[in-house]
Design a protein that fits this description.
Largest sheet: 8 strands, parallel, barrel
CATH superfamily: Aldolase class I
Structural class: alpha/beta
Number of strands: 8
Radius of gyration: 17 Å
CATH architecture: Alpha-Beta Barrel
Order of helices and strands: EHHEHEHEHEHEHHEHEHH
Bound molecules: pyridoxine-5'-phosphate
Helix content: 40-55%
Number of domains: 1
Strand content: 15-25%
CATH class: Alpha Beta
Strand order of the largest sheet: 1-2-3-4-5-6-7-8
CATH topology: TIM Barrel
Shape: globular
Oligomer: single chain
């Protein structure tokens, strides 16, 4: 099976830093350590309220890492302007406001085709790969393909919370991506205990994992948790 990438989300290194208003811990230093331990990319989410990652972190991260930067952003003009200025490897468009979310938490692409389509086109024209963070729902995948997204990231939050039938929904959604010419990623709420079945889904090329890894790093150290997550992902795909 094709190997799978691990994108390490370092937002919560910034959460910890901001809790005391100091300059440490530094999300860029954490990203560099994660990459040295085997992370294939780094993900950051510049939220509209800047509760963790801040504007200066985005430019520092782009300059400070040697692996692809995945920039999570709300579908707003402000965020598009920042993305076009920074030019990350990829942008993952995520819901931030309640009006943008479906009940399960993914972006409602199907309900916002007219506004999201031109946004995707502008980001792609700048050479940025564009991902949609969606629930494992056929209509959302078809809508993502229709507006020209390169990638869908399947929201694994409900699966992580043990919702009945949710794993089957992830498998079914992933199974549609080849025909729709969408690269398939997954993430949210993944841990050492629940990652294996998702990592084993053949079409899933990348997992983006943050909160658990940063939390577990308090106990085991960041390199050790990144190495263990990568080892679990490799094992899930037959080594
Ligand atoms: N993927 C996307 C699109 C996200 O917004 C997030 C953060 O909420 C993650 C993955 C990582 O989720 P977690 O921090 O729960 O691992």
């Amino acid at each position: 099976m094709i190997s799978q990438r691990l994108g390490v989300n370092v937002d919560h290194v910034a959460t910890l830093r901001n809790a005391r208003g100091e300059a440490y811990p530094d999300p860029v230093a954490a990203a560099q350590l994660a990459i040295a331990a085997g992370a294939d990319g780094i993900t950051i989410h510049l939220r509209e309220d800047r509760r963790h990652i801040r504007d200066a972190d985005v430019t520092a991260m782009k300059a400070g890492i040697t692996k692809p930067l995945n920039f999570e952003m709300a579908a707003t003009e402000e965020m598009v302007a920042i993305a076009l200025a920074v030019r990350p490897h990829a942008c993952c468009i995520v819901p931030e406001k309640r009006t943008e979310v479906t009940t399960e938490g993914g972006l409602d692409v199907a309900g916002h085709l007219a506004s999201l389509g031109p946004m995707v086109a502008r980001l792609k024209a700048a050479g940025i790969r564009v991902s949609m963070f969606v629930d494992p729902d056929e209509a959302q995948l078809r809508a993502s393909a229709a507006i020209g997204a390169d990638i869908v990231e399947l929201h694994t939050g409900s699966y992580a919370h043990g919702a009945a039938g949710e794993f089957d929904r992830l498998v079914a959604a992933a199974g549609l991506t080849d025909a729709l010419r969408l690269e398939c990623h997954a993430g949210h709420g993944l841990t050492f205990d629940n990652v294996t079945p998702v990592a084993a889904i053949a079409q899933v090329m990348e997992l983006n994992i943050g909160h658990f890894l940063i939390g577990q790093a308090i106990f085991d150290g960041l390199p050790a948790v990144v190495e263990r997550m990568k080892a679990l992902m490799r094992a899930a795909r037959g080594g």
